[in-house]
Design a protein that fits this description.
With 339 residues, this protein is of the alpha/beta class. It folds into two domains: 2-62, Phospho-2-dehydro-3-deoxyheptonate aldolase, domain 1 (Alpha-Beta Plaits); 82-335, TIM Barrel, CATH 3.20.20.70. It is built from eleven helices and 14 strands. The protein has helices at residues 11-23, 50-53, 107-119, 143-156, 168-174, 191-198, 214-226, 252-261, 270-274, 277-289, 316-336, and strands at 2-5, 27-32, 37-42, 58-62, 82-83, 89-90, 96-100, 124-126, 160-164, 180-183, 204-207, 232-236, 266-268, 294-298. The strands form three sheets. Strands 7-8-9-10-11-12-13-14 form an eight-stranded parallel β-barrel, surrounded by five helices. The protein has a four-stranded antiparallel sheet with strand order 2-3-1-4, covered by helices on one side. A two-stranded antiparallel sheet has the order 5-6. Helix 5 (168-174) links the parallel strand 9 and strand 10. The longest helix is centred in the last third of the chain and has 21 residues, at 316-336. It is globular and about 65 Å long. The two termini are 29 Å apart. The relative contact order is 0.13. Bound molecules: phosphoenolpyruvate and manganese (II) ion. Residues 102, 128, 132, 184-186, 207, 237, 272 line the site of phosphoenolpyruvate.
C-alpha cells in the first residue's frame, strides 16, 4: 500500500497515520521526493483501505500488490514525464532519440557527432567516459577530463548529455556536467549506487541487467525512487540467452510489458540489444511499435575506427536514415492507436 501525504500535514495528523498503520502490523518507509511525500507500507493484513483514506493528512492511498510500489502503474496511472529543460522532455508526446558514440574519444569526435545530431534536430547525446569493459586491457574511457570537454562542447551547442556512472563516488563528481545518469547493465543491481542516485535531483536511466528479469529492473528503479528521486526511466538493452548468433537477445516483449507495469518512460537500446550494425535500425523501428518512449543508439563518424563497440555503431548516413524512419514509424503508430 502507498499513502501520499498532504504537503502541509501537521505532526499530530502524521503520527496518527503511523499509529493506525502500525496497528495493522504494516512496516512503513517514508519517502520524500521533490514531488511528494509518501509512505510505503508493507504487510499482509486485510482491511478496508477507506479507513486510511479518510484520515486527516492523507492525500491519496492505493493498494499495490507488486514487489515494486512507487514505480508501479497501480500507484500512478499517468505517464511520468522527465523535463531536461529547454523543451527537451522524455516521456511526453514525442518520441525521444538519444544518440552518440559508445565512448567519448576526442573533442573533434564530439564536435562531428554534435553537427550530425543538430542537422537531424536531435537534442540528447550519449557517450561514455567511464567504460565498463569485459577486458581490463580495453579502452576504459577518458574519465572526468573527457566529461568536462564533452560538457563544454555540448553546452556550446545546446545539447543534453547522458553518460554512464559506474560508482558511488562519481555521482557527485559528475553532477554538474551531465543531464542524465546512465546506470549500465553491469550495475543494474549495484544497490549502493542506486541508493546514491536516489539522493540527487537529476534524471537517471536504469538499464536492465544482462540476466535481470523485468521485475528486478523495476525493483532497481524502486531503490532510486524510494531514496527520493523520481526522475527515472528504464532501458531494455538485451539479455544474455543461449542464443549466440548475436550479442544479446533484444527483448521487445519487455518493452510492451514494462509499458503496462510502470508509469516510467521506457527506452530501447537496439545497439547493445543486437550488437550488429546491419540489424540495429530494424530493431530500433520495431521498438517503436512495442510502445517505447524513445531509443538510445550508438553513432560515430567512422564506426570501424571507434574505440569501443564499432561493430554495432551506425555511421552518419545510417543514423540519418534511422532518425527519419523512427519519426515516420512513430507517427504511423500514433495514427493506428494500438490497443
Ligand atoms: C553502453 O551504453 O555503452 C553500455 C556499456 O551499455 P550496457 O550497460 O547496456 O552494456
Ligand atoms: Mn557501447
Amino acid at each position: 500500500m502507498i499513502i501520499q501525504l498532504e504537503e502541509k500535514i501537521n505532526k499530530k495528523a502524521k503520527e496518527n497515520i503511523f499509529v493506525k498503520i502500525n496497528s495493522l502490523g504494516y512496516k512503513t518507509t517514508e519517502v520524500k521526493t521533490h514531488h511528494g511525500n509518501y509512505v510505503v507500507c508493507i504487510g499482509k493484513m486485510e482491511f478496508d483501505i477507506r479507513s486510511i483514506g479518510s484520515l486527516a493528512g492523507v492525500k491519496d492511498v492505493h493498494r499495490v500488490s507488486d514487489s515494486y510500489k512507487l514505480v508501479s502503474r497501480k500507484w500512478k496511472v499517468e505517464q511520468t514525464q522527465i523535463d531536461l529543460g529547454n523543451n527537451v522532455i522524455i516521456g511526453g508526446n514525442d518520441f525521444t532519440i538519444m544518440a552518440g558514440p559508445c565512448s567519448i574519444e576526442s573533442e573533434d569526435q564530439v564536435r562531428k557527432i554534435i553537427q550530425h545530431l543538430l542537422s537531424n534536430n536531435i537534442r540528447i547525446m550519449r557517450g561514455g567516459v567511464f567504460k565498463p569493459r569485459s577486458s581490463p586491457y580495453a579502452f576504459r574511457g577518458l574519465g572526468m577530463q573527457g566529461l568536462k570537454m564533452f560538457n563544454r562542447v555540448c553546452r556550446e551547442n545546446g545539447i543534453k548529455i547522458i553518460t554512464e556512472v559506474m560508482q558511488v563516488s562519481q555521482v557527485h563528481e559528475m553532477y554538474d556536467y551531465i543531464d542524465v545518469y546512465q546506470v549500465g547493465a553491469r550495475n543494474s543491481q549495484n544497490f549502493n549506487l542506486l541508493d546514491a542516485l536516489g539522493k540527487v535531483d537529476k534524471p537517471v536511466l536504469v538499464k536492465r541487467g544482462m540476466s535481470g528479469t523485468i521485475d528486478e529492473l523495476l525493483q532497481s528503479a524502486e531503490y532510486i525512487f524510494s531514496n527520493g528521486n523520481e526522475k527515472l526511466m528504464l532501458c531494455e538493452r538485451g539479455i544474455r540467452t543461449y542464443e549466440n548468433a548475436y550479442r544479446n537477445t533484444f527483448d521487445l516483449n519487455a518493452i510492451s510489458l514494462l509499458k503496462e507495469k510502470t508509469h516510467l518512460p521506457v527506452i530501447a537500446d537496439p545497439s547493445h540489444g543486437i550488437g550488429i550494425r546491419e540489424h540495429v535500425s530494424r530493431m530500433a523501428l520495431a521498438s517503436v511499435m512495442t510502445g517505447a518512449d524513445g531509443v538510445i543508439y550508438e553513432v560515430h563518424e567512422k564506426p570501424e575506427e571507434a574505440m569501443s563497440d564499432g561493430q554495432q555503431t551506425l555511421n552518419f548516413a545510417e543514423s540519418t536514415w534511422l532518425i527519419n524512419n523512427l519519426r515516420k514509424t512513430f507517427s504511423l503508430k500514433e495514427s493506428i492507436s494500438i490497443l
